[in-house]
Design goal:
With about 130 residues, this protein is of the alpha+beta class. Helix content is about 25%, strand content about 45%. Strands 1, 2, 3, 4, 5, 6, 7 and 8 form an eight-stranded mixed β-sheet that branches. The relative contact order is 0.22.
């Protein structure tokens, strides 16, 4: 069975708007050592399961944070914009996972002085059937 994380990775690494900017530099949780930029990381930051009168349901509502990195502010924002165009409002089957809806939640800009890299952190709620 494909996990929601695997499905999101598949969606992002097969979308021209994203791959034209970062290729397949999409990583779970952290960037690799000495990464190439721009790049993106993703992580689940919360998850709620639907319930029915019979018990636990099969609908998951996780919230994911995607961190979009670049050596310039415009590069990081460009990746975040491509991410929003790809995910916000999306529904469909990805790698056998039934994604019912994806909602944009929030976006925050940041700069890391130590490494000189800009970051745009974007949160999305993903509703899917497991």
């Amino acid at each position: 069975m494909t996990t929601i994380e695997e499905a999101l990775y598949s969606k992002l690494t097969n979308e021209a708007a994203i791959t034209s900017l970062i290729g397949t530099r999409v990583y779970p949780l952290t960037l690799p050592q000495n990464p190439s930029y721009p790049a993106m990381t993703y992580q689940q930051v919360s998850k709620v399961w639907g319930k029915t009168h019979q018990g636990a349901g099969d609908m998951g509502w996780p919230r994911f944070q995607f961190d979009c990195y670049g050596t310039s502010y415009s590069a990081a924002k460009g990746v975040a914009n491509a991410l929003r165009q790809t995910l916000a409002g999306f529904s469909g089957t990805v790698a056998t996972v039934d994604v019912c809806a994806v909602f944009f939640v929030n976006e925050v800009d940041d700069f890391n002085d130590e490494v000189g890299v800009y970051r745009v952190a974007a949160d999305y709620r993903v509703i899917y059937r497991e």
